[in-house]
Amino acid sequence: MEDLVLLGQSMEKLATDWDCWRFLIDERAVAMEIDPLGLTEFAERCIDEPRKKMRVAVIYTAENVSRLHWIETFLQNRCIPYRQFSSFEAAKQWLMSTCS
């Protein structure tokens, strides 16, 4: 959970400092262990208006994309543009598409 909070803070700082709101994160080697309650607590504390301008694409292994699909749904239901991919090309295409 601490790593997730630090990642969110780093992204917010980069976005503000560089006026860059699109992120591609490679988490294929990360052991993602978060439960819905933990993500809810994180969102309640950390997701604010500036982050809603962000667009985040995360690359997972195919296994983790299917195992962690609920994270994408959770964040999209809170109007956070976040998508999970198992391919860099698909993630890049989504990141570079016009924001809706």
Layout of strands and helices, then pairs:
Elements: H1 2-18, E1 22-26, H2 36-46, H3 49-52, E2 55-59, H4 62-67, H5 69-76, E3 82-85, H6 88-96
Parallel strand pairs: 1-2, 2-3
Provide structural commentary.
By secondary structure, the chain is of the alpha/beta class. 55% of the residues lie in helices and 14% in strands. The chain has six helices and three strands; from the N terminus they run H-E-H-H-E-H-H-E-H. It has helices at 2-18, 36-46, 49-52, 62-67, 69-76, 88-96, and strands at residues 22-26, 55-59, 82-85. A three-stranded parallel beta sheet has the order 1-2-3.
Task: Identify the notable features of this structure and list them briefly.
alpha/beta; 6 helices; 3-stranded parallel beta sheet; 3 strands; 100 residues
Helix tally? 6
The main sheet orders its strands as 1-2-3
- As an assembly, this protein is single chain
Largest sheet: 3 strands, parallel
Average pLDDT figure: 80
Q: Over the alpha carbons, how many angstroms does the gyration radius reach?
A: 13 Å
Residue stretches low in confidence (pLDDT < 50, at least 5 long) are none
**How much beta, percentage-wise?**
5-15%
Terminal Cα span? 30 Å
| Large-scale geometry | globular
Helix residue percentage: 55-70%
SSE run: HEHHEHHEH
Number of strands: 3
* Secondary structure category: alpha/beta
What can be said about this structure in brief?
By secondary structure, the protein is an alpha/beta fold.
